[in-house]
Design brief:
Blueprint: H1 3-14, H2 20-27, E1 33-35, E2 38-40, H3 44-48, E3 54-55, H4 61-73, E4 78-81, H5 85-94, E5 99-103, E6 108-112, E7 123-128, H6 134-146, E8 150-154, H7 163-166, H8 169-174, E9 177-182, H9 188-193, E10 200-204, H10 216-223, E11 230-232, H11 238-249
Helix pairs in contact: 4-5, 6-11
Length: 268
């Protein structure tokens, strides 16, 4: 349950449409939903405004099935990250009849149970240095969309051709938050942060030759950015960048939406 669900429940009790005992029964399993080995934090969306996400990597088929069952029992939409093709096929099979989508490039699966509401103050723009960085950027994009943000993708604008990011200045300068994904030497976040009036989140990727050290070089480069205020997440952590960007971009659920905002998120 999230704040909106709790509010509806309280209104139903107040207006006589639901007995207090029935409301208590719905709230009984609010903190934790236990299914098999999985203890799903069903209270998280109420505490943080973000439902618990299922990390699929390393889970057995049974654990994965238990995790998604527990997540969906809370009535929320479900996002699963680091999903293998075999796991995606399993989820599609066991969730037959539900709105399930396999985002192959992002290695993510989304299960929609209710409309995604736009809760953002503006648009999150996601840039990549190269096309090899796109899978990490797509993980960020799918996560942002599932968490109620409007998302724009700007890919393959690395600093080896400086005219490329400069060709997207309107998107960079109009963004509410920028997620900048880069491997190799990881220079793109510094360049973008020098052009943008909003928070910039750098995501180093493991893309690169020898002394890129699996993304360590890009990570250290971003941490040592000469552009003030660049925030950096872990290597290949598109999900973590998306959560940070969501919290930066988020309106409170009951705040008025901007006049030009759509009625729902743009979906993953």
């Amino acid at each position: 349950m999230d704040e909106g669900d709790i509010l509806k429940l309280l209104h139903a009790v107040r207006d006589g449409g639901m007995a207090p005992e029935a409301a208590i029964e719905q709230l009984r399993n609010l903190p934790v939903t236990q299914v098999g080995d999985v203890a799903h934090d069903s209270h998280r969306s109420l505490r943080r405004g973000l439902a618990e996400v299922v990390f699929a990597q390393g889970k057995s088929d049974a654990q994965l099935a238990d995790a998604v069952t527990a997540a969906l029992s809370s009535g929320q939409n479900c996002l699963l990250t680091r999903v293998s093709p075999a796991q995606a096929a399993l989820l599609t099979r066991i969730l037959d009849g539900r709105d399930v989508q396999w985002h192959e490039n992002a290695r993510a699966v989304t299960v929609i149970q209710k409309p995604v509401t736009d809760l953002g103050r503006g648009e999150i723009v996601i840039l990549t240095a190269g096309t090899s960085d796109v899978p990490v950027a797509e993980e960020a994009a799918v996560t942002c969309a599932m968490m109620g943000n409007r998302v724009r993708r700007v890919f393959d604008v690395g600093v080896a051709g400086l005219h490329r990011p400069l060709g997207h200045l309107d998107a960079i300068r109009s963004a509410s938050v920028l997620i900048v994904v880069a491997g190799m030497e990881g220079a793109l976040p510094s360049v973008v942060a020098g052009l943008a009036p909003c928070p910039v989140i750098g995501v180093p990727t493991s893309v690169g030759y020898g002394t890129s050290f699996g993304g360590v070089t890009a990570l250290l480069s971003m941490l040592n950015s000469c552009a003030g205020g660049v925030t950096v997440v872990n290597i290949d952590n598109g999900f973590g960048a998306a959560v940070a960007a969501t919290l930066m971009n988020r309106r409170r659920p009951f705040d008025a939406a901007p006049p030009d905002a759509p009625t729902g998120g743009n979906g993953p």
